[in-house]
Design a protein that fits this description.
109 residues; 434 Repressor (Amino-terminal Domain); two-stranded antiparallel sheet
Length: 109
């Protein structure tokens, strides 16, 4: 059987996006991090919707948007602060805060 030559992922990143710390690589890593944050928020909204036994259509009605928009939000797309706020308020969240670590917590609503 022939031996496979495998290339470490880090080497591929270096080749196609530059070494860690280069502008192109930093931009890629920021975009990946932003996408992960949006995905996690979307998953939190989906989990809260399911705990409330709501369909995407029902949540959309509460938010004043279409079911397809709820689907995009739950998939981390079209994510704005206003949309996140509207979703969590529609799910019954009375308050929300962001913890900025050493800078303290800020009440969002």
């Amino acid at each position: 059987m022939a031996q496979m030559n495998l290339t470490p992922f880090e080497d591929l990143l270096d080749e196609f996006y530059g070494k860690a710390g280069s502008p192109r690589r930093d931009e890629l890593e920021k975009n990946v991090e932003d996408a992960l944050h949006a995905y996690r928020i979307g998953e939190a909204i989906k989990a809260a919707r399911k705990r409330e036994n709501l369909t995407q259509e029902e949540l959309g009605e509460r938010m004043g948007i279409r079911k397809s928009q709820v689907s995009r939000i739950e998939n981390g797309k079209n994510m704005t602060f206003a949309t996140i706020e509207k979703a969590f308020k529609a799910l019954g969240a009375k308050t929300a805060t962001i913890d900025f670590g050493k800078f303290g917590k800020i009440a969002l609503w």
